[in-house]
Amino acid sequence: MIDDSQSISFFKEDKAVKNILQAINSNSAINNKFDLQKFAFGEDIQALDSLSFSKPQTNISKAISTVNAYQKNKISPIVLISDGNQTIGQDYEFINSKQPIYTIVVGDTTKYVDVSISQLNVNRYSYIKNKFPVEVILNYEGNEDFKTQFSIATKGKTVFRKNVRFSASKKSVTVVTNLTSTKEGTQYYTATVAKIEGEKNIKNNTKTFSVDVIDEQTKVLLLTSILHPDLGTIKKAIESNKQRKVEIVNISDFKNEINDYQLIILYQPNTKFTKIINEIQQKNSNYLLISGSKTDWNFINQKQLGFSKNAINQTEDYNAVYHDAFLTFLQEDIGFNDFPPLRDKFGEVKITQEYQALLYQNINGVQINSPLLATFDKNNQKSGLLLGEGIWKWRANSFLNTNSFEDFDKFIGNLIQYLASNKKRDRLEINAEPLYPANSTITIAAFYTDKNYQFDARANLEITITNATTNQVTKVPFSLVNNSFQTNIENLPSGDYTYQVSVLGQRIKKSGRFKITAYQIETQFTNANSNKLQKLADKTGGKLFYKNQTEALNKALLANQSFYTIQKSSNKQENLIDWKWILLIVIALLSAEWFIRKYYGKI
């Protein structure tokens, strides 16, 4: 496994890595004993084609896990060629590997004096004229006492400054401050720690961050008459976006006005919800109804909400089937088909109004033509229906699959964003980040519908990107990817950009802006992390080598008796008669014998 990230070229180890690879490839004894399989990795891992040392991120733990899964039940020692510096993923030092890992350290292992911004934490959203917290962790490598200055600036103006002191016993400082949001929209800030004497790498002294300043918060009311783990899961998922706030209230205790909320979630409603549902119908309020084993479907059917269910008291487990033709909003498949089933009362669902289904039901492996999650838009009222309880299992399962709640929380956020909005739907919607790291691929997605709000795959979309400093214009077409348009832009230099997405042949356009930072995460390191690579090798039963010890590595692999060749025996069965003419002679003789015996009366 070869580290193909930018840090290798930053340490000027491109040639050394290729020489190591060549030394292993050209060793005839190694090739006789092993079937060599070569992989290159950055953020992801793939079979080695060529090395560019341009990957913007490094995920060593993912590379090891992928190869372990691929080589399951095989004897396959791993040779890891890397500087040991990981930028994303789980800490590979503690990973469990069934295969021994032999690590080869490339890069400078000398320790240099360095001060860096190792972590910056900030909420993505803030409210205008409010204060928002910023937490910055500064790290120091060295043994001398010194003082330097940390500052935060926006549009060339310093908004925060503080002196910080480091020493041999104080190698980390946490700076916490509160900044004031003064203008609506996306605001960019630059955090900087001043260079110290003798510092070799100053690229890790600066970090850029952004904050979306909004003028109001989306308030969601979650009404229930029971206690259930789903309630906390829904609240956490929605409030992962600080732009939204959820109030969980028992239906018997609710005394406020529903007009104070942009969305009402009705969790397993029963007759206690009579007043609220009547008020929702009168005021045309947006809502999401979630049913389950405690739902009173007789009550819901009487309310004529546009859907009904002929339910019985018996419950059923319903798995999800992702519907890739869903058009209400842009939602990718996050593994819905593999999520645990939701539970609801068994019965036939009838929907008497137009709807869009994101998920369909699957019962015991059989997909049925009934939605599991559907959205409605009628008479300026948006509503949703989720037929099943147990969505807390989905969030847990998503975390197990991706080591993050982000995919599930984003799915719930997309649903809530659509249902809570009272604005008329735009025919053109753009999905872009406000901030991109240097040398990364800029991915922008667009969603375009016709006048009936049906996805229009016939459209031709184009994005025009303008550098705010040089006024250089770049035009790139969009490609059709499933039910959306997508474009990837590479090799844009750091700076501020504005963009405009146009539908060719139509007077429909949408604009925005983003920033490409000068900060490259792969260049933040001052030396190779040989300590972690040593611990990884020790834990897995391998050994650490340096770049000039390739021959020693080859000898260690050849001398290890546990790496043996597996011999397999196979049984080959053949007919006793291998030639057709012998078979014909035997048949002829037997036939002649039969006729002779028959003729002389012996049979």
Task: Describe the structure in brief.
The protein has twelve helices and 32 strands. It is α/β, with parallel strands linked by helices.
Written account of the structure:
- With about 600 residues, this protein is α/β, with parallel strands linked by helices.
- Helix content is about 20%, strand content about 35%.
- Strands 15-14-16-17-22-21-20-18-19 form a nine-stranded mixed β-sheet. A five-stranded mixed β-sheet has the order 7-13-12-9-10, with no helix packed on it. A five-stranded mixed β-sheet has the order 24-31-30-26-27, with no helix packed on it.
- Helix 5 links the parallel strand 14 (about 220-225) and strand 15 (about 245-250).
- Helix 5 packs across helix 9 (about 405-420) and helix 8 (about 390-400) crosses helix 9 (about 405-420).
- The mean pLDDT is about 90.
